[in-house]
Amino acid sequence: MEMELQEMLAELHMHNDKEKTLQTLTVCKHAFFDLTYISPVVFLYLLKECYIHGTCKATKKFRALQQQVHLVLQNSPPCGPAVFVVQCLYVLPTFGLYSEGFSHLIISALRRFLKVAATSEDLAEAKMLAAQLFLDIVGSSVNHDEGVVVKILETFDVQLPNIEKVMCPLKEKDDYSFDSAKRFVEQYIYDLIDCQSYMNAVTLLEHFSIRQSGESFLDTMMRKNEFKAAEKWATFMGKPLLCVLVKAYIDRNMLNNAYQTIKQNNLRQEFPDVYHKCKESSLKKLAEKGCWDVAEARTNNNRQLLEYLVYLAMEAGYIEKVDELCERYSLEGFLSAKVPEASLLHSRYLNLNEFFVEDIIWVDDAEALHNATSHIEGCKVVGIDCEWKPNYVKGSKPNKVSIMQIASDKKVFILDLIKLFEDVPDIMDDCLTRIMQSPRVLKLGYNFQCDIKQLAHSYEDLQCFKQYEMLLDIQNVFKEPRGGLSGLAMKILGAGLNKTRRNSNWEQRPLTPNQLEYAALDAVVLVHIFGHVRNHSQTASDAEGLEKFEWKSYIVSHMDKLKKPKKQNKRELEANRKTG
Predict the structure, then answer these.
(1) pTM of whole model > 0.90?
(2) For a FRET experiment, which of 77, 93, 232, 433 has its CA 20 to 30 Å from that of 474?
(3) Is 138 within a domain?
(4) Domain annotation covers residue 266
(5) What HEC string does 16-47 produce?
(6) Domain membership of residue 554 as a residue range
(7) Are residues 539 and 549 in contact, defined by beta-carbon separation less than 8 angstroms?
(8) Are residues 321 and 367 in the same domain?
């Protein structure tokens, strides 16, 4: 049977392309149906053909073939699935560029297979054959990457006694020493270390339970920035070396790595100050991003951390968050002691009073929306922004956009999109279409492409967010590398924006006065940045950092063409005429 298959494979190259494809599929189907008479060479050749002729991307092809090989191993290979895979690994180096990828593929497929269907006889034979393969690889008889070597030793659970038995087949059965195997393996690991293949070296040291000189080896890996390998090694060696690792992280000011190591290995008692410092650093980063709810949850009701979070809220001028936390956790005494410090903080940020905004108008019904639309259509330039409640559940869909702010230089309209969509969706669609598609109103945004996608996703039944004209994304004009809109405001207007309320609950009604001010400021500041730079760019000096402001080329429009109705063929027209 094997000879017949090989003859069929040889004949594939003697026919035209169509016949070649048909015969290849026939052979593949037969080979994958029954492995009883299929050699590793033929199997790997067919695997290669499947890979070459696949139309998916490499990752998808790898996963599909991995699943296929996993199923194939159940189709009765003559020597057992595990032994069959080792035999394939012996042959694979002859496949050149495909060798490494296919090696990982069939090993991973075997791992899946062994979880559900394994026989002790097959595994025992495969383990000894894998030990011999390891010796042949190290001896350069078979060429495999060290990553594949590690996978082979792990998958087949090759241990020092197995290697010793292969190295010394005539050794007495009651001789349980394996000094030769240990020296052989240690030398291989030393070679990996010399080649700076630290993760593979550590994996094998752990696999064979060989304990190297701990601190010196750890120090070498840290100096080479091999932090994952160092962590794996320290975890294997135990608490003393883990403590050395934490100290090394602290010396390098890698507090997050130190914190994660302390947390994962229960070393809080050994490093209480470092743990607390890292927690504070984590809370500060969350506060800077406006993720106050997440930061509060991360305190785990620790009073010291809660007090630090209150301090951060005070520092940011987020007074309602200060009140909320102090009331919830009875921190009134702490609050009264710290209030004087907070009074100095507001001068760092822009506020609405500086822009002489006449009114912030809440829009949640048809009449207010019509009035807002009429005012906006009479403006030459408006700033647009929107907000939605953050969703901290990993992998879940973002919440619906809650509000949309549209600002002229004197008025800000805050549209309650959720209520308008529930009560007057058609009017909302019509009014916002007039605004978004108006060729007479320049609409300013900051990273507004992201916002418009979120709007279109939130209100996919409406047409108003699918088309727009005269949109200028300020981010594209200035390309500020850091700080976002707040950083740009600092550069142009001399002060930044307080972004602490960015991730607050925008679905609550009514919004707090501070939320309204935050929302209004994000939109109105766009108008003033644009006006300030446009008016001063011609005379600004280089020292002021205001170069000539070229903005017209950045205006974009997006007008989807309406889909044309599908043309009917003659048969359909005839049928319609008869039924009509």
Answers:
(1) no
(2) 433
(3) yes
(4) no
(5) CHHHHHHHHHHHHHHHHHCCCCCCHHHHHHHH
(6) 352-539+550-558
(7) no
(8) no
Q: How far is it, in rounded angstroms, from Cα 143 to Cα 136?
A: 8
Q: Which two tokens stand for residue 368?
A: 């207010």
State how far the Cα of 364 lies from the Cα of 383, in Å rounded to an integer. 19
Q: Does 328 share its domain with 361?
A: no
User: Are residues 281 and 429 both part of a single domain?
Assistant: no
pLDDT at 176: 59
Distances (CA, A) of 266 to 243, 255, 275, 384, 492: 11, 16, 11, 49, 48
Same domain, 491 and 448: yes
DSSP string, 531-567: HHHHHHTTT--GGGT------GGGEEEE-PPPPPPPP
Q: CA-CA distance, 411 to 406, in Å (whole number)?
A: 9
Q: Is the pLDDT of residue 21 over 50?
A: no
Strand partners, 413: 361, 406
Residues with Cβ < 8 Å from 573, sequence gap 6 or more?
none
Tell me the pLDDT tens digit for each residue of 543-573: 444 456 678 888 888 865 544 444 444 444 4
Summarize pLDDT for 375-403 with one digit per residue, the tens: 999 999 999 999 998 887 777 788 999 99
Domains: count for the chain: 3
pLDDT at residue 276, rounded to an integer: 85
Q: Find, among 459, 454, 472, 451, the residue nearest to 551 by Cα.
A: 472
Residue 171 in 3-state DSSP? Answer: coil
Residues 326 and 369 in one domain: no
Cβ(128)–Cβ(54) below 8 Å: no
Q: What is the number of other CB atoms lying within 10 angstroms of the CB of residue 535?
A: 11
